[in-house]
């Protein structure tokens, strides 16, 4: 936890102390933060002021039989539901809830525009369970007003492999944000997962909760600077012209890497093996089965025609050997209150791997670093070109993995957002996130976060 985050919590606690513990005298935002902290104090997570001296589970392992079969109680106006995402009508309910109520930027200018194809890819990975797609409906109208999901993942935390779930798409209808549904949703998804004998989870948030194991920064590489400027995503620097900015972010017409082509099913075995070798360098990674690898990198269209493509994966083949691969996914923004543009095409860097520095025993040596940097700069420049050709307007990446080696050279600018990584019921030493204390890119220590969350 950063000094800034500790200071924020300390200020809240001091305000509460000055008001003799009367939370009503805090602002609405401060009250929410205090309630959130109080809730997390009841959960098996690392405390904000805790110094970790040993990694491992927090609570003793229970048995599924010790977990209640009954869902948690809800206020009388609401009822639990299990959302069947294979049913188009129920999937439409999730689609509408998230597209109308999920995360917006602070200026309420952009909102994630999730597609049905994206949900089919992200919610139905191998081993997915219908029971882990949890919703809350209004009892009278059956309107879906809250949702949370989990998918199974095998996490490797340094040397330990932990059977876990990845929690995502937590959303509560805007008009119900004061009903404290979020803690109940978290408890209910925990109950359902525990009933399946899984006791750990990975989740992320843009807000500070107890207690991040790592923090990464969002970065953005403009692909269509003119449009980004018109919708307020980017701003014109002083002493610069539109022509100069367009020229600054112009990309070559074609990719440059010999042997670069879309990934095919015949590439899966080699690409999977390459990813495993590359990911071994990081402290927090997801390990993929062959089935999972195929799903995440070739998609889950199931032969459906006229669908919007979600995942884009490419390999580099030389003399029959896969030496590199990279992937990115599409998750557009809806542009709010703009008379000209209604949608912003967004590409997100997903997983990649290269054999460039695998022969070196020390990945941080000068020679290994320069070798990998050169390869990644070439690959990611091609990724930007391919994303542009897929009608994306900006290419986003975190400071995770080895990304800080290419962010500056390829003109990725630091964003305002930060992503905090959390482990539920598992205590771990801090993991570097690719940023320094002053929030600039760390090209020396880089990042030891190898997992990518959607």
UniProtKB/TrEMBL annotation:
Please state the Enzyme Commission number of this protein.
Answer: 2.3.1.97
**UniProt catalytic activity:** N-terminal glycyl-[protein] + tetradecanoyl-CoA = N-tetradecanoylglycyl-[protein] + CoA + H(+)
What species is this protein from?
Torulaspora delbrueckii
A Pfam family assignment: NMT
Q: What class of enzyme is it?
A: transferase
Q: Quick one: which gene encodes this?
A: TDEL0C01910
Using the record's annotation, list all stretches that form the Glycylpeptide N-tetradecanoyltransferase C-terminal domain: 230-452
**What broad taxonomic lineage does this protein's source fall under?**
Eukaryota, Fungi, Dikarya, Ascomycota, Saccharomycotina
Q: What residue stretches are annotated with the Glycylpeptide N-tetradecanoyltransferase N-terminal domain?
A: 57-216
Q: Fetch the SUPFAM superfamilies from UniProt.
A: Acyl-CoA N-acyltransferases (Nat) (SSF55729)
Family (UniProt): Belongs to the NMT family.
Q: Which InterPro entries match?
A: Acyl_CoA_acyltransferase (IPR016181), NMT (IPR000903), NMT_C (IPR022677), NMT_CS (IPR022678), NMT_N (IPR022676)
Keywords from UniProt, A to Z, are:
Acyltransferase, Cytoplasm, Transferase
GO MF, one annotated term: glycylpeptide N-tetradecanoyltransferase activity
One GO CC term, this protein: cytosol
Q: How does it assemble?
A: Monomer.
Q: What is this protein called?
A: Glycylpeptide N-tetradecanoyltransferase
Purpose: Adds a myristoyl group to the N-terminal glycine residue of certain cellular proteins.
Cellular location of this protein?
A: Cytoplasm
């Amino acid at each position: 936890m950063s000094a800034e985050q500790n200071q924020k919590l300390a200020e809240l606690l001091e305000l509460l102390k000055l008001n003799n513990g009367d939370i009503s005298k805090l602002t609405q935002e401060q009250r929410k933060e205090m309630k959130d902290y109080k809730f997390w104090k009841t959960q098996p997570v690392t405390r904000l002021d805790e110094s970790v001296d040993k990694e491992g589970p927090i609570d003793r392992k229970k048995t599924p039989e010790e977990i209640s079969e009954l869902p948690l109680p809800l206020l009388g106006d609401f009822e639990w539901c299990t959302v069947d995402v294979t049913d188009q009508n129920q999937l439409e309910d999730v689609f509408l809830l998230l597209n109308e109520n999920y995360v917006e930027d602070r200026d309420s200018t952009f909102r994630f525009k999730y597609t049905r194809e994206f949900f089919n890819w992200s919610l139905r990975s191998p081993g997915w369970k219908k029971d882990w797609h949890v919703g809350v409906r209004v009892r009278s109208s059956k309107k879906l007003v809250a949702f949370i999901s989990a998918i199974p993942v095998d996490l490797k935390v340094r040397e330990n492999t932990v059977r876990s779930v990845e929690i995502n798409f937590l959303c509560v209808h805007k008009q119900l944000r004061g009903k404290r549904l979020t803690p109940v949703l978290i408890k209910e998804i925990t109950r359902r997962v525990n009933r399946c004998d899984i006791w750990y989870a990975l989740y992320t948030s843009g807000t500070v909760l107890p207690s991040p194991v790592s923090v990464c920064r969002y970065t953005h590489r403009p692909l269509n600077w003119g449009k980004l400027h018109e919708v307020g995503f980017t701003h014109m620097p002083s002493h610069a012209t539109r022509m100069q900015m367009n020229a600054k972010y112009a990309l070559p017409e074609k990719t440059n890497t010999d042997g670069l082509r879309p990934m095919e099913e015949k590439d899966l075995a080699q690409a999977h093996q390459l990813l495993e070798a590359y990911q071994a360098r990081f402290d927090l990674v997801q390990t993929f089965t062959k089935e999972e690898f195929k799903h995440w990198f070739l998609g889950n269209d199931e032969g459906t025609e006229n669908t919007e493509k979600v995942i884009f994966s490419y390999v580099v083949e030389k003399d029959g050997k896969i030496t590199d691969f990279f992937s990115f996914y599409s998750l557009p923004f809806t542009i709010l209150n703009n008379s000209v543009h209604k949608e912003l095409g967004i590409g997100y860097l997903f997983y990649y791997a290269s054999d460039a520095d695998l022969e070196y025993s020390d990945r941080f040596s000068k020679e290994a670093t320069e070798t990998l940097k050169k390869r990644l700069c070439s690959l990611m420049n091609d990724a930007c070109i391919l994303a542009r050709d897929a009608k994306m307007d900006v290419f986003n990446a975190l400071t995770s993995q080895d990304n800080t080696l290419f962010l500056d050279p390829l003109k990725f600018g630091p964003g305002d957002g930060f992503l905090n990584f959390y482990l539920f019921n598992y205590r771990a030493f801090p993991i570097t996130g690719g940023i320094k204390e002053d929030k600039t890119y760390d090209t020396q220590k880089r990042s030891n976060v190898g997992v990518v969350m959607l």
